[in-house]
Amino acid sequence: MAKRAWVPWALGGLALGGVVLGVRALTKKPSPGSDGGTGPASEPLKLAKTGDKVVLVGDSIGQGLAKPLAAMLKQLGVTLVSADGKTPLVVKGVTVKGLLPVIKAHASVLYGAHTVLVSLGSNDAAMQSPNVEVQAAEDLVKLLGSTGAQVVWIVPPSFRLKPDDVPLPATEKKQNQFDMILTNGLVDNRIEPNDPVFHELSSDSIHLTTPKGYTLFAAQISSELTGATGA
Hints:
This protein is α/β, with parallel strands linked by helices. It has helices spanning 60-75, 96-105, 130-145, 170-183, 195-198, 212-226; strands at residues 13-16, 19-22, 53-58, 79-81, 83-84, 87-88, 115-119, 150-154, 189-191.
């Protein structure tokens, strides 16, 4: 599947439907990505090893990843946590702004974590104020990073949904643009869905097929996070 070109969002505004919305610029300068495109390259991941704890926070995509990813990491001696007791840290339909207070209230679960995986962004298409949403994302990364954990943003599967020459509905375009803001310069580490995962987008063009799509993405994440192959 063709890949959507990266857009350098270190600009003073976000263009949506011909209207430029004021968004505080993210200062990280894009650099060539590993796929030879124009996307920013992630810093090398600090690999998780036996005995480490990984925390997963996110939306319905995180929900789909939680079970297969937990099973794969368990085989490698790594524990995945996606809830604090009975309080889930992966919530269907949640936005960055919506999940932030939940994580603040259950911040103790973050301590001792080697890595926090963040699977958010796809629901932020309905954002009312880009400035507020971007600020919430920055606040979230700051909170997670303050625990000493490595923060890794899991890029939503719809991030590079279609080739650039395929027209997108306005809402979908807005969603993809905000996904770019969240993943271009906000954190040093990102895990982007690879081509096999792209081919497993479900009929809504947002989620992945169950169980194959989520299993493939979980395997990719496990491999990149631990360095183990054949996860």
